[in-house]
Amino acid sequence: MFSNNRQWRLKNAAGTWLLALTLPLSAQGAADKGKITAADIVAADIAAANQCDAKRVKLQVLGSGGPELDDRRASSGYLIWMDGKARLLVDIGSGSMLNFERSGARIEDLQALLLSHLHVDHSADLPALVKAAFFTPRQQDLPVLGPSGNYLMPSTSDWLTQLFSPQGAYRYLSEYLVAEQRSSFKLIPQNIPAKPRQVSEYRINDQISVAAVPVHHGPIPALAWQVRAAGCKLTFSGDMSNRYQTLAGLAAGSDILVAHNAVPAGARGVARGLHMTPDEIGSIAGHAQVKLLLLSHRMKRTLGQEADTQTAIQARYNGDIRFADDLQQFVPPGR
Ligand SMILES: [Zn+2]
Prior knowledge:
Layout: E1 9-11, E2 17-22, H1 38-49, E3 57-63, E4 77-82, E5 85-92, H2 96-103, E6 112-114, H3 120-123, H4 126-133, E7 142-147, H5 156-164, E8 187-192, E9 199-203, E10 208-215, E11 222-229, E12 232-236, H6 247-251, E13 256-260, H7 269-274, H8 278-288, E14 292-296, H9 306-314, E15 320-323, E16 329-330
Parallel strand pairs: 2-9, 5-6, 6-7, 7-8, 12-13, 13-14, 14-15
Antiparallel strand pairs: 1-2, 3-4, 3-16, 4-5, 9-10, 10-11, 11-12
This protein binds zinc ion.
């Protein structure tokens, strides 16, 4: 299902190349550092030169809100469709699974879940997905890729253990995690190192690969993700301040950048330490020369501020800007 080690490289905002730490996915979730070869780099260059086949790929917003329950939006979640099938989930916040149902997606088509971080508004609906999968013909294991842990947050694998192990809160679903127990499929956790400026890439299938880079979200281990499908690059900031300055490099040349618009211009204090201001979003989108900037994770403090937000972004980025709503679909604008 997954390839072995592959290498790729990304240019960061300062113009230096970041070499990827490549990690194979396996049933054991083992991490393994690979070696770079000339053939790998050539292959990466060829892949980077691929044109986006926009007819085959679609991004659907399952949750355009943050943690608030009175914003009339589901919490964070995105679905990537390819060739008419829902293949990847990026985040699975509360309410996103109701919109998954409304989208017409099928659980048995999913090939991975990517988590930006484990805050409730990005992760709370996973048990709902696992339970619902029981009623589907799903047979294929489901990789769950997310950050490693620290003193505040469990690693992705520990989080799954705390939920689904025989001692976990949802121990009645432990068959989906414990190898010895019979079930139609398993959750396969993969912890992504949360060290700054280290890019990790995973191959999902012949036509889809994903990459993650750590981003700063206060003390919470957090990742930005990129999905590469049929030559299209879709990048997701997750929640982040730009203190690590890693997103522009990951997002370079993206067809769509989903940036989280959780604070307004002039934000201060704790919120400012956790999130990007509109001018920072504009600066990143401008440096990365993304084709379409989609603003999501909208909260009451940014809802109603769209005109000011757009003005601040347009001072630094002259591409297309859209504000996300639940269930909207976006096709890559192409090159
Ligand atoms: Zn959030």
